[in-house]
Amino acid sequence: MALIRKFERRSMERNSLHRSIRATYTPFEHDGRVSLQIDSYGSETRESPGKKSQSFQLDREGATALLAMIRREFALS
User: Fold this and answer.
1) Angular region, 50: left φ>0, alpha ψ -120 to 50, beta rest
2) Which of 2, 32, 37, 68 stands the most exposed, by the fewest C-beta atoms within 10 Å?
3) Is there a contact between 67 and 12 (Cβ–Cβ < 8 Å)?
4) How far apart are CA 6 and CA 37, in angstroms?
């Protein structure tokens, strides 16, 4: 698990679209600050279907950075 506060743009030589998977999110408060945890789950064809695969957390700083990135890359206002 990791707390993400900043994002860095990077170019890759080869890109491919991954398969769709299930994800959940959980807002929570810790030390008076709101955070958001996003958990992803592997595909139903994996060895342990439904098992949590990865988790990451965003605090206000990370959420602000993610929102700015999404607005910029998808040309959203």
Assistant:
1) left
2) 32
3) no
4) 15
Q: What is the Cα–Cα distance from 22 to 28, expressed in whole angstroms?
A: 20
CA 51/CA 35 separation, integer angstroms: 23
Q: Which two tokens stand for residue 26?
A: 């959980």
What are the tokens at 68? 């700015």
d(CA 25, CA 43): 17
pTM equals: 0.85
List, for residues 30-53, the tens digit of each pLDDT value: 999 999 999 999 887 878 877 899
Q: What angle do CA 49, 53, 58 make, to 5 degrees?
A: 145
Q: Alpha-carbon distance 58 to 55, whole Å?
A: 10
